[in-house]
Amino acid sequence: MRIIFLFLVVLVLQTGCSQENKDKMPISDFKQELLDNAILVDVRTPEEFSAGHLENADNINWYDADFSERFKTVDKNKTIYVYCKMGGRSAKAQEKLKSLGFTNVVNLEGGYDAIKANN
Fold it and tell me: Can you tell me the distance from the alpha carbon of 97 to that of 4, in angstroms, rounded to the nearest whole number?
């Protein structure tokens, strides 16, 4: 009986951890192949974006008043990868998008600064 209980506890913990990990990923692990059925959004300012960004990224500025409106035409089940300079704005954007009903929003942790640091 104890073995079954321990097995169930481990199973629940693993499921919980995998759900958490689905919401975030180090930006260095991001691959363009992930965009086959997803979009990549850089939530930095247009000035930051023009100084360098990930390939195939759309720039939707977190600070713009119409931030939420810009996602009206996006399928709520589509995966959205978000990133910013270091991770703060993208975490806020992720929460905002989830509150709007988007189910698969992944915060690329470390932000564009982590990409620049590795190059």
Answer: 39
Distance of alpha carbon 36 from alpha carbon 87, whole angstroms: 24
Enter the pTM of the model: 0.81
Cα–Cα distance, 87 to 106 (Å, whole number): 11
Give the number of other Cβ atoms within 10 Å of residue 60's Cβ.
21
- Which of 93, 79, 80 has its CA nearest to residue 44? 93
Q: Letter for the amino acid at 25? A: M
Tens of pLDDT along the chain (119 residues) come to 655 444 444 444 444 444 445 899 999 999 999 999 899 999 999 999 999 999 999 999 999 999 999 999 999 999 999 999 999 999 999 999 999 999 999 999 999 999 989 87
The answer to whether the Cα torsion of 100, 105, 108, 112 is positive or negative is negative
